[in-house]
Amino acid sequence: MAAGFRTRGQPAALAAITRAVASERPPGALLLAGPARVGKTALALDLCAGLLCLADDPARRPCRACAACRKVDHDNHPDLHRLAPSGAGLQVSIGQVRSLIGELALLPMEGRFRIAVVEAAHRLNPDAQNALLKTLEEPPAGAVIVLCADDEAALLDTVRSRCTRVRLGPVDPQVIAELLVERGLADAPRAARLARAAGGRPGVALALAAAPEALVVRGRLTRTLLDLTAADRRERLAAAPALLADALVLTDAARETPDAGPPDAAEPAPTSDDAARGASPSERRRAALALIAAWRDVARDLAVAAAGGRGEVRELELLEEYERAAAGIDSAASAAFLSRLDGLSAAVEAYANPDLAVDVLLLTWPRTPRTA
Ligand SMILES: [Zn+2]
């Protein structure tokens, strides 16, 4: 295999992308689907570098050393167009999609292909998806469209059916730990701990490693949520600002890693940790989504601990807290809460008031009897 692929783990997905690069005949429309921050953008950029690379032998692409590969790495290749959600609703707008379609209709400037990468394609609203349909069905010669989606269910059937689907799954923690050590971000013991906390998502591990305080914040957030299983209604609602502030720190950490996509240029980065409630609508939505994502991990681990699965809990140092909270939790309530989390996450991405969604979650988070 060429040395230039940066994707870690994902043997099946990487094999499909390697074949597309070596054959020089990629599908016109690709859907990379898998959990958030598992490496979809990294795989998409491997494909872009591979298709645009100037190395003579297709089997050696991407070389990551030629002018084209370097432009892909610096995000300034004229034949590569990246689209990420922006604005308060974190949507990909129909205007963005239309200008992308316009770009794809032109001939390649430097390479053999013109490539569009749509990050967070699960945030394309139905109008934007419909605008893409014709291009997905009959891509202009040399055009390749890559949709990256956390949640395939958010895409129209008509969009899904026009794409070649490549599925990404969780990455072995050992592989993630090696990546962290290789990049000099952590020594072996810390890398193992971060990889475990990341639950198979290299993007999460990189974010945690890049921001030393993130692991502390994440631990505090987990502990607060576990403590809240024994709290009353008033205590639960009172905890919202601190939880959102911690979640905002985690989103800031995440924005500094490549897998998280480019920062939203329209808005300055948040400056204060305790400003979650007073932050801009877009930041509040991001904070709520980060909180929901972290909460999903905690809820899953709580369910795992309740079922007696000690070894499977992500944050081993919190195992006692998990077991204490799990002792009084009803497993049906726990399952109902997990499905509520998924529903509210989709609602907050689409339109729902993020503060209200967090309050609903706080009030429905399973309760344990208070012990002395
Ligand atoms: Zn190259």
Please supply descriptive tags for the structure shown above.
single chain, 372 residues, alpha/beta, Rossmann fold, 2 domains, five-stranded parallel sheet, 16 helices, binds zinc ion
Structure description:
- This protein is of the alpha/beta class and 372 residues long.
- It has two domains: 11-167, P-loop containing nucleotide triphosphate hydrolases (Rossmann fold), CATH 3.40.50.300; 211-364, no CATH class.
- It has helices spanning 11-23, 40-52, 67-73, 94-105, 126-137, 157-161, 173-182, 188-197, 202-210, 212-228, 233-238, 240-255, 281-306, 319-327, 331-350, 354-364, and strands at 29-33, 80-83, 114-118, 143-149, 164-167.
- It contains 16 helices and five strands.
- A five-stranded parallel sheet has the order 2-3-4-1-5, sandwiched between helices.
- Residues 256-277 have low confidence and may be disordered.
- Helix 5 links the parallel strand 3 and strand 4.
- Zinc ion binds next to helix 3.
CATH architecture of the largest domain: 3-Layer(aba) Sandwich
Residue stretches low in confidence (pLDDT < 50, at least 5 long) are 256-277
Helix proportion range? 40-55%
Task: Write the CATH fold name of the largest domain.
Answer: Rossmann fold
Instruction: Name the CATH homologous superfamily of the largest domain.
Output: P-loop containing nucleotide triphosphate hydrolases
End-to-end C-alpha gap: 60 Å
Shape category: globular
With helices defined by DSSP (H or I, 4 residues minimum), what is the helix count? 16
Instruction: Going across the biggest sheet, name each strand in turn.
Output: 2-3-4-1-5
Major sheet, described briefly? Answer: 5 strands, parallel
The secondary structure category is alpha/beta
> Overall pLDDT, averaged?
86
The percent range for strand residues is 5-15%
Q: Identify the bound ligands.
A: zinc ion
State the order of secondary-structure elements, H for helix, E for strand.
Answer: HEHHEHEHEHEHHHHHHHHHH
Regarding CATH, which class of the largest domain? Alpha Beta
**What's the Cα radius of gyration?**
21 Å
Number of DSSP strands?
A: 5
Query: What count of domains describes the coordinates?
Result: 2
